[in-house]
Amino acid sequence: MIESLLMGIETVFQPLNLLILFSAVFIGFLGGALPGISGTMLVVILLPITYGFDTTSAFLLLTAIYAATVFSGMISAILFRTPGTPEAVATVFDGYPMAKSGHSSRALGIAIVSSGIGGIFGTLVLIFLTPVLASVALTFSSPEFFGLALLGLTVVASLSAGQLSKGIIGVAFGLFIATIGIDPLSGTQRYTFDMNGLSAGVELIPVLIGLFAVAEVLKKGRENTKEKQEASNTKIKIFEKEIFKKIYRTITRSSLMGTFIGILPGVGATTASMLSYSEAVRWSKNPKKFGKGAPEGIAAPESANNSAAMGALVPLLALGIPGSATTAVLIGAFILHGLQPGPNLLETQSNLVYAIFIGLLIVNTLIIVCSKPFIKLFTKIMNIPYYILGPIILMFCIIGTFAVRNSVFDVWVMLIFGALGYLFTRINFPVAPIVLGVVLGPIAEDEFRRSLQLSGGNWFVFFERPVSAGLIIVAVLFLVYPLIKKLFKKSKSSLQSEAG
Amino acid sequence: MKGKVLLLASIGLSVFLTGCDAVSSESVEDYPSRDIEILVGHGPGGGTDVFARTVGDLLEEELGVNINIVNMEGAGGATAKNEAGSRPGDGYTLVASSAFAPATAQGNIEGLDDLRPVARMQSDVFTVLANPEVYEDFDEFVEAAENEGVEVGGVGAGDMDEITANLLIEETGLDINYVSFEGAGDMHAAALGGHIDAMMEEPGPAVEYISSGDLIPLIAFNDERLDDFEDIPTTVEKDIDLIDGVERGFVAPADTPDEIVSEIESALQNVYESEEYQQHAEDQYLTYREGWLGSEEYEQKLEEDIERISEVID
């Protein structure tokens, strides 16, 4: 292993490969920051170019781009409430409020540190534990996935900013949106009204861009935009000791969580960042500050999505199974380069695999080092008056949404959700629970039904397996606990009043 | 006022119509004179996507124009086919097609009313794969299915995997519980993790698991034994009348003129016979059956399949 690592270092430090890594980071930064241009798309676009490269250089390029886009999705999420990649959606929840209150440089700094640590942690796990963890991931079956999604959904209470009933309505709405389209388990059309666009389901990215970015452009259009946004000239401080003291626990927990969720087949970095945001809220002593610019609320999703992106490579390299959408594209890339990813890849292509490992380690370091000048460029954009910037953001949203799967229908979906999102902000309806429902809905529903398919309709399947039983019981407890607490308080106060 | 509008409209219409005419008469002779789009109904990285990209690359050289692969993921490939059906049949839109017959039988696409076949290039063989420590061979699998029932995974709902599994149940009377997965990756994970007893899959995508010893094919849906798996029985020798598999080819909007279809068809045939493509097919274990069917034979085959599968679904 040490030998392979040294070989990897030797390969990666060839001038050409270093150049490739640098350009990949730059391309990834740019793509990730633009809404709609995700890592998946960039890898697909650049794949034909890599045919001319040798395999190692090709995969250094593709994996580095993948890592860099997951990182830079947060830039536009924090500055413009526009998640540049779906992975950055949870970063909007606290990143944008913090930036809005004049601390955009601090928000970006927290995101950079958390992303960097998450990414490096994920890569180290990838290097040293890939074979072990891949087999652990295989023990997860449908009931466990359902338990995990259910646990994530129960956090709705803390995401709804004290308005529990609105939060529950929001989650239900999100879950409903997730059911639209051809049902993957039975092939039945659901809520499609014979429209070709709807039969493919409502894509996540148009919903996110609509609810956040477009809604914000509409909202700002009503505001007095003459006031200059400050913060654009303040220096980005990547490392602030006091802040770091506050968030290092969150970073540690979220990096661990993110890596593990990323390793699970079929669950990607978007879900990981949502779930670890939820857990950050749950574990916090002061959950009410989330959604208003809490540093932990940026640290949690950012360390989770970057570590999950690395974790998703574990099943890919150890078993040939994609851990997420982008890794599915990487599998295709392997095949088109004449390689077959599978359980033997670590042995037969160890030079390639270890070069990828080292490349990722360098990329995650480069992310911390290079992001500052890049983000500075981006914050300069904030100096542009909003009556010019707003339409430009809107234009990028439209192009980006169209590009996801070349569908004009998706653009309409995005605009409709933009109008909805605007309406929601007007009536003070929390948007985060909707996103929670849309992201976790498909996992929860499909895995629930697949569990029952697997067990032949036996409901005990969820409780026969220790991990799923544990997850579900904890989820139910979290749901019931606030109600019991309320009841308890009530009876106590009524007792007191009786006594009085 | 009304007259003016009418006049303007008729001028506009006639300009539009002459424009169309000019384009179509020009394009049949000069075809191809601009970029061609190949729509893929599945996400990048999957079997159909890899097929489209491999062929698209070689087809570029044959036709001398750029070919853009456009992923229109959704509804088991139906989205892309419906989109193509609504586009003009000028030869500049093609669909890399798989699961054409089941999607038609299910009513998710208009089938041969909307699209016309150009050529089939791949005809893959289904196998049932399982962990060798659980079932040593097909007979043990049958025994287990008769005694306690088995869970068999497949990709998609109502697609070829499920239809074949249902046909297998119908033919053999075995107690098979079909479990559908959204992607091949999830299914492979479930099979490797022992959460399903067996899975429906072609040898190509599973070959690494076979060579690592994690999985073995129990039976091949073919009339002859497969070259690399001489010990594996076939459905035909077990008296099961099923030789299905995944078929991939190209279809075009139904109103694409014959001249253009035959031009693309012969270009595809050159691609099919090229050394590069044959090497790819061999690497992906796609050479057990002849893949090539010209437009007429492909259309006939699809008609038969649609009829047969519609009966199963009803």
Automatic annotation (TrEMBL), chain A:
The chain crosses the membrane at residues 20-47, 59-80, 107-133, 145-161, 168-186, 198-218, 255-277, 316-339, 351-374, 386-404, 411-439, 459-484. Residues 18-436 form the DUF112 domain. InterPro entries: DUF112_TM (IPR002823). Keywords: Membrane, Transmembrane, Transmembrane helix. This is Putative tricarboxylic transport membrane protein. The lineage of its organism: Bacteria, Bacillati, Bacillota, Bacilli, Bacillales.
From TrEMBL, chain B:
InterPro entries: BUG, Bug_dom1. Pfam families: TctC (PF03401). SUPFAM superfamilies: Periplasmic binding protein-like II. Keywords: Receptor. PANTHER family: BLR1237 PROTEIN, TRICARBOXYLATE-BINDING PROTEIN. Belongs to the UPF0065 (bug) family. This is Tripartite-type tricarboxylate transporter receptor subunit TctC. It comes from Geomicrobium halophilum.
